[in-house]
């Protein structure tokens, strides 16, 4: 090797550069593993939700034109697919593996999807109750469902206030801290009351008549809980 070639040859990497490169590789590998876990969990959620709908119409093919049946369908999609996806974004906000702004935007979008599915499900059941002059909220399934929906409305209001604060319209630190705590508490109430209502919903007279076997009903009663927990911890 000539003297000129020695002068233009790249210097060997320092120890700091080598360690930095290894850390970047490890972080990239870890993020890729997280995204793979998310994809697997989403596919399982979709498979369970499709199975819920397919089994229902396979056993009850004549009920597709009964608007009432779309209440459990929309609620199942909300709690089997949308809620685990929403809790994935909560995990992203906590772990900071995803840029905070991107995680927050994804959280807002998925929260909107979850709440819209709930709204459609509630409108359907309330319309059916009203049109048939049936008593509202006479079971724990219905009562917990109302608690879930009211908590979601309050959660939206608190979230909107927090968004206004972040935009600079409110700057009181103590109020901001209270709002964050209240938002988390309401979110916990939404998840717990919603999952409890979903669980009890598989033991109503309608579920017994349409899904029949206890094993099938237990499976669809428990899977929303499993998928929700999986969704939250899939990013950790």
TrEMBL record:
<keyword id="KW-0472">Membrane</keyword>
<keyword id="KW-0813">Transport</keyword>
<keyword id="KW-0408">Iron</keyword>
<keyword id="KW-0349">Heme</keyword>
<protein>
    <submittedName>
        <fullName>Putative ferric reductase transmembrane protein</fullName>
    </submittedName>
</protein>
<feature type="transmembrane region" description="Helical">
    <location>
        <begin position="112"/>
        <end position="130"/>
    </location>
</feature>
<feature type="transmembrane region" description="Helical">
    <location>
        <begin position="185"/>
        <end position="208"/>
    </location>
</feature>
<feature type="compositionally biased region" description="Acidic residues">
    <location>
        <begin position="12"/>
        <end position="23"/>
    </location>
</feature>
<dbReference type="GO" id="GO:0046872">
    <property type="term" value="F:metal ion binding"/>
</dbReference>
<dbReference type="Pfam" id="PF03188">
    <property type="entry name" value="Cytochrom_B561"/>
</dbReference>
<keyword id="KW-0479">Metal-binding</keyword>
<feature type="transmembrane region" description="Helical">
    <location>
        <begin position="70"/>
        <end position="91"/>
    </location>
</feature>
<keyword id="KW-0249">Electron transport</keyword>
<feature type="transmembrane region" description="Helical">
    <location>
        <begin position="214"/>
        <end position="233"/>
    </location>
</feature>
<keyword id="KW-1133">Transmembrane helix</keyword>
<dbReference type="GO" id="GO:0016020">
    <property type="term" value="C:membrane"/>
</dbReference>
<feature type="transmembrane region" description="Helical">
    <location>
        <begin position="142"/>
        <end position="164"/>
    </location>
</feature>
<dbReference type="InterPro" id="IPR045150">
    <property type="entry name" value="CYB561D1/2"/>
</dbReference>
<dbReference type="InterPro" id="IPR006593">
    <property type="entry name" value="Cyt_b561/ferric_Rdtase_TM"/>
</dbReference>
<feature type="transmembrane region" description="Helical">
    <location>
        <begin position="40"/>
        <end position="58"/>
    </location>
</feature>
<feature type="domain" description="Cytochrome b561">
    <location>
        <begin position="39"/>
        <end position="236"/>
    </location>
</feature>
<keyword id="KW-0812">Transmembrane</keyword>
<feature type="region of interest" description="Disordered">
    <location>
        <begin position="1"/>
        <end position="23"/>
    </location>
</feature>
<dbReference type="GO" id="GO:0140575">
    <property type="term" value="F:transmembrane monodehydroascorbate reductase activity"/>
</dbReference>
């Amino acid at each position: 090797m000539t003297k000129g070639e020695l002068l233009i040859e790249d210097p060997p990497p320092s120890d700091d550069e080598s360690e930095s490169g290894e850390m970047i590789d490890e972080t990239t590998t870890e993020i890729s593993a997280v995204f793979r876990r998310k994809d697997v969990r989403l596919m399982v959620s979709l498979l369970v939700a499709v199975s819920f709908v397919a089994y229902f119409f396979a056993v009850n093919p004549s009920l597709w034109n009964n608007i009432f049946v779309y209440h459990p369908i929309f609620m199942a999609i909300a709690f089997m697919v949308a809620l685990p996806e929403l809790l994935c974004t909560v995990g992203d906000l906590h772990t900071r593996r995803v840029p905070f702004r991107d995680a927050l935007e994804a959280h807002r979008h998925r929260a909107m999807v979850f709440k819209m599915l709930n709204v459609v499900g509630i409108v359907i059941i309330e319309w059916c109750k009203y049109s048939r002059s049936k008593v509202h909220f006479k079971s724990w399934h219905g009562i917990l469902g109302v608690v879930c929906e009211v908590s979601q409305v309050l959660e939206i209001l608190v979230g909107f206030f927090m968004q206004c604060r972040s935009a600079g319209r409110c700057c009181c630190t103590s109020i901001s801290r209270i709002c964050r705590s209240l938002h988390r508490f309401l979110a916990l109430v939404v998840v717990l009351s919603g999952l409890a209502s979903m669980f009890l919903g598989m033991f109503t007279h309608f579920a017994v008549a349409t899904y029949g076997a206890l094993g099938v009903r237990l499976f669809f009663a428990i899977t929303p809980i499993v998928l929700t927990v999986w969704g939250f911890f899939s990013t950790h």
